[in-house]
Amino acid sequence: MNELHSRVLRQKDELINDRRWLHQHAELSWEETETADYLESKLREIKGLTLSRPTPTSVMAVLKTGRPGPVVAIRADIDALPIQEENELEYCSVHSGVMHACGHDGHAAILLNAVRILCEEPELLKGEIRFVFQHAEETPPGGAVEVIAAGVLDGVDEVYGLHLTSILPTGQFGVCEGVLTSATDRFDVTIHGKGGHSSMPHECVDPIVTGAELICALQTVVSRSIAPADAAVLSVCRAEGGSAYNVIPNTFSLTGSVRTYNEDVRARIEQRIKSLSEGIAAANGAAAEFSYSRGYDSIVNNTELTIMGRKLIADTFGAQHVTELSPIAPGDDFCYYSQKCPGFFVELGAANHALGSDAPHHNPKYRMDEEALVYGLEYTVAILRSRCGE
Ligand code: NI
Question: What is the pTM of this model?
Answer without folding.
Answer: 0.89
